[in-house]
Design goal:
α2 packs antiparallel against α3 and α2 packs across α4. The chain contains 4 helices and no strands. The chain starts with a helix and ends with a helix.
Amino acid sequence: MAQHAETIARLYTPASTCPCSPGDDAGAHPVTADDAARLLAAVARARRTGPPEELNRLVALLLGPCPAASARAQALREAAERTKRR
């Protein structure tokens, strides 16, 4: 029960870096524009050619719960703005 409470507290304490350690080696959630751009490109590739499991893993990095969700959102916004300027 204590571990459950710690997990909930960790998810609801804002962070600027991703402290998540997915058990399936999915990787950290993106918190920089460069990381977000790479992840979005990987999602596009997986959508076209990858197995559904890979696409699901990548989308979870975009949308999954993380204390750094606001930093991730900002990174995605910056990556999108870069794409618009090209």
